[in-house]
Amino acid sequence: MSLPSPKPVAPPARPRFQFTVLGLLVLMLAVSMVGAPLYYFVRGWQTGQASMKLIGMVGVLAGPLLLTILVSLLVTVAQWLGRK
């Protein structure tokens, strides 16, 4: 008498995509760094105030550089705290 053959084991289900806390913080930082200058730019465009347009344009143009610096600092701090 032979034993029944074992059923093939299905591979484990792939976990859902999840954000880490640091990733969520960086995402929110990126959205806020784009949203704030755009607010000033749009308000300056609606009201005709050149100073608000200037603030918005400087923010939009300098935003990627500032975002890169802030992300680098956050990752460095997270790594430093992880070693302690």
List keywords for this structure.
84 residues, 73% helix, mainly alpha
Number of helical stretches of at least 4 residues: 2
Helix percentage range: over 70%
Give the averaged pLDDT, no decimals.
Answer: 81
Shape: elongated
In short:
By secondary structure, the chain is an all-alpha fold.
Structure description:
The mean pLDDT is 81. This protein has a domain at 21-74. The protein is built from 2 helices and no strands. The protein is mostly helical and 84 residues long.
Task: Give the helix/strand layout.
Layout lengths: L20 H27 L2 H34 L1
